[in-house]
Amino acid sequence: MEETCSRAGFGKKFTKAKPYLLTVGLQFGFAGGYIFSVASLNHGMSRYVFVVYRNAIAALALAPFALIVMCQGFTFLGMQYTSASFASAIMNAVPPVTFVLAVILRLERVNVKEVRSLAKLIGTLVTFSGALLMTFTKVLKLSYFSLLSQPTTKMEATLLMRLSGTVFLLLGCVAWSSFFILQSITLKRYPAEFVVAIVATRHSGLVAWALGWDFRLHGPLYTGIVTSEITYYAQGLVLQTRGPVFLTAFNPLCMVITSALAALGSFLFAEQLHQLLTA
């Protein structure tokens, strides 16, 4: 009897903790996705080819919405013009954008008299302010130490590249937030996480591009299997129980993980220490 009660108690605790464990695990998966994506792009792989292979691999492993391709296209384009740590920091704008969209679509209820709602509002403002501060700091400073030795023409080109990359990353934030909202609505009407994950990652990559036994292969494999098929399924589980705002609230953790991994493997991405610190 006691053993049965103990198991039941553990089951309830695990059920409550499962959304947190899944969401934290997702951030580790996303962090690895940033690292592998930048490595693949720096090894000469086209961002368009990368998006196709990522979704093609995910589709083969599990069995697009056009919004998925748009999310990835904007994000990878912005990442190519900036860096992994900067991209993961800018993506912190996803939680506040998701919260605003959820409120507009009445997926999230806000009552300023409730502590929970007030905490969400404050968290949204803080997160969005941090993302904006990160954007202006990174773009305006432009890695001061590296630009001192550059001629004016090259410095202007670098500035334009960083600004363009930032804009594309912000567009990617909006696209990802829209995708989370769409996935949440879809699961409410059709509660089958596995099927939704298959549909979300199905992509017709019919053109065969050459792959090398390096990050041009490792990047699409990792992002296709881990950050597409596995994460979409896990996202579905979390979205069903806690909603899109809860899911995206853990995004800042991804920035910490990505910066730590980038610091350990900076020789792969040519990211200097001061660039990581300003990120």
UniProtKB/TrEMBL annotation:
It is found in: Membrane. GO terms for cellular component: plasma membrane. It is a multi-pass membrane protein. Keywords: Membrane, Transmembrane, Transmembrane helix. GO terms for molecular function: transmembrane transporter activity. The chain crosses the membrane at residues 20-39, 51-77, 83-105, 117-139, 159-182, 194-212, 249-270. It comes from the Eukaryota. InterPro entries: EmrE-like, WAT1-related. Its main location: membrane. PANTHER family: WAT1-RELATED PROTEIN. This is WAT1-related protein. It comes from Glycine max (Soybean).
